[in-house]
Amino acid sequence: MIGWLSDDKVFRKKVNFNKHFFFKLNSWALDKNVVDDLTQMDCVEIRLKDTKDGTIYSIALEVFLQAAVEDDYGHGKQYFVREKYWNQDVTNSEQKTEDKTEE
Q1: Measured between alpha carbons, how far is 74 from 72 in angstroms, rounded to an integer?
Q2: CA–CA separation, 99 vs 94, rounded Å?
């Protein structure tokens, strides 16, 4: 599963920082096709939850699109957004909500 768009128009995806973070660009990346679809579905925010420590990385879709760099490093076209643009929440405040949504 790539992720899911909830009723509040927030796209949520579970990630593993060590596996999914693109260290070469110090960035999080999403497939271009996914972002294009999210734009069409009126998504307002992207939230990535690190399954290792529970940190939630969030960014408004508008900011994501403004800061994104499109490239292909062997996994198809993706948008890369540097970590400095993402908000980080380490309180695990969404853990129960996201776990229930996934069931």
Answers
A1: 6
A2: 8
Strand order of the sheet with strand 10-15? Answer: 4-5, 10-15, 45-50, 56-60, 87-89
Q: Is residue 40 helix, strand or coil?
A: helix
DSSP 8-state class, residue 3: -
Tokens matching residue 91: 């309180």
Query: Can you give the pTM of this predicted structure?
Result: 0.85
Convert the pLDDT of each residue in 15-65 to its tens digit: 999 999 999 999 999 999 999 999 999 999 999 999 999 999 999 999 999
Angstrom distance (rounded) from CA 43 to CA 65: 12
